[in-house]
Amino acid sequence: MITESAGALARQPGSPLKPEGATEAVLVIEGLKKAYGRVTAVDDISFAVVRGETFGILGPNGAGKTTTLEMIEGLRDPDGGRITFLGMDVVKERRRVQQRIGVQLQSQALWPELTVEETLKLFGSLFHRRVDIGTLLDRFSLMDKRRALVKGLSGGQKQRLSIATALVNDPEVVFLDEPTTGLDPQARHSFWDLIRDMKREGKTVIVTTHYMEEAEALCDRVAIMDHGRIIALDAPRALVRSLASESTIEFGFPETAEREELAGLPGVRDMRKENGSVLLFTNDVSATLNALIRFADQKGQQISSLNVRTATLEDVFINLTGRRLRD
What we know:
This protein is of the alpha/beta class and 327 residues long. It has two domains: 6-240, 3-Layer(aba) Sandwich (Rossmann fold), CATH 3.40.50.300; 244-310, Alpha-Beta Plaits, CATH 3.30.70. It is 32% helix and 28% strand. A six-stranded mixed β-sheet has the order 6-7-8-3-9-10, with helices on both faces. It has a four-stranded antiparallel β-sheet with strand order 2-1-4-5. Strand 9 (221-226) and strand 10 form a beta hairpin. The protein starts with 5 loop residues before the first helix and ends in a 6-residue tail after the last helix.
């Protein structure tokens, strides 16, 4: 099986991994690099995406996610490395590649004075192959807004229109850059349904996000980026299992306890301190909680802001970097 644990990938961030049983890689990234002056935005990353999967690039703002996508989409030239899309070199055959992909940019490229229908027709005119506009309006619940100006749409409607523009050419691969940023929870979950629909239709979807729950809900595999490098790559549940703990106990403790004391509590597999909180990664929540309460009593201190949760990709990121995803 061509996967590795988070720890192993942290040591080998350049491995062009794809899942077991995968046949056709629609996209292969090898040693991709990009720098702006002395700042390295993308630092020698490699991975492959196979047909029909939803592949996530997860990381905090500034991790290099958008720059990576822009190079793959042919919008920005890499400083080094190779990008291959269905056997085509993205840099050398940019126009051919762009006819077969769909792109939803992080910054919506929509003209406020055009109507919804005019917007879709304009984007469609850029491609050889086009989808029926009425079909897109129906699919994205925009038929009743077809003659409305873009500037009068709600945030969720603009976002739906934005992704509709990425599908006007019936692309084989769809790129979505932070597609749900700024949406309320209901609109975000509706958007997730649209992405799931694309997967059911057999499209390959590559999505960047800094929402851990979004990556867990949507993605077959996730590459976690930090400071321009891929520090982990695998299926979300496999990354969580790599923590060797099932749950996380997070709490505030006024007295600084020795790491050895907390790490030695029953069931604890690892311990972190960050932003004034203590995080205990445990395989036995009951045993750890009971021991923690006794420990606090012995110290004569109160535990505050106690939170117990199933381990998540946030915990994977904390374990690898020592800080939260959104820090």
